[in-house]
Amino acid sequence: MNGHQAEGPHEHDRGLSYDLPVLARRRMIRLVAGAGLIPLVGCTSERETSASPSSSPSSSSPSGCAAIPEETAGPFPGDGSNGVNVLKESGVVRSDITRSFGDSAGGTAEGIPLTITLTVVDAASGCDAPKRGAAVYLWHCDRDGAYSLYSEGVTEENYLRGVQETDDAGRVTFRSVFPGCYQGRWPHLHFEVYDSLADATAATSITNTSQLAFPKDVCDTVYATDGYGESVRNLSGLSLESDGIFSDGYDRQLATMTGSAGDGYTATLTVPV
Fold this sequence. Notes:
Order of helices and strands: HHHHEEEEEEHEHHEE
Number of strands: 9
Strand content: 15-25%
Helix content: 10-25%
Radius of gyration: 18 Å
C-alpha cells in the first residue's frame, strides 16, 4: 500500500467534504422538482421505474433518454482545475493510456488489461444521434489506488489519462488496466465530455462530468488476481448503495462488462449528453 493510499478517502476523493456539495445540489433539485416547483428537463430511465434500492429520480422528457448524471471530478482531475493540467500537453490525445508520455517518468501502469468504450449520444434526440467530433477526457487510479500526477510515488507519471475524439458512431476507446479499489470509494473511473477535441486540449468548455462504476462480480474476480490484494480488503466494506457518489442511483453509470481476468475485460457505457 503506498503512502497516499494510507490516508484513505480524504486524499482520494476528499470524502464528504469534497463530494457532498455536488450531491446535495443534485438532490435538492430533485426534491424541489418532486414538489412540483420546477420542471426537470431530461428523459425517463430505469432509475424512475425500478423499485430497487439503486433507483432514484432522474430528469425526464418525451425523448425517453436520460442524460448521464453529473458528478464531481474529484480532487485529482489533471485538467487545470486543481493544479496540474495534462490536457495541454502534447501526446495526451491517445487511445493507449497505460504508459506515461512526454516529459514524465515514463512508467507503465500494471494490472488486468481493460478496454473502455464510451458511446456519446445526444440525449435530446432520444439517444438516437451519436455525437460525432466530440471529445472525452478519461482518467482513473492505478492498481494500487494511486492517481498519477498527484499521489505519492507517481507524481512524475501521467499514465491512465488520455483524450479521444468520438468517431462517426460517437465512440471513443481507451486501452488501460483495471483500477484498484481504494478506501472509501467504489471502483470507478472519471470522464469529462467536451464539444470538440480543440476544447478538450484547451481544457475549456466542459459539457459533462461523470463517473463510471464497475460491477461487483467483475471486481471480485479481478481483485482475486496478483497485485490487487489491498483492493480485496477495501472493497469488502463497500457497496454501490453506500458509495458517496453512486448511492443515489447508478443504473446509467454501471458498465457492461465482457471478457475474463485471463484475457482482459472490456467495459462499455452509453453516455447521453
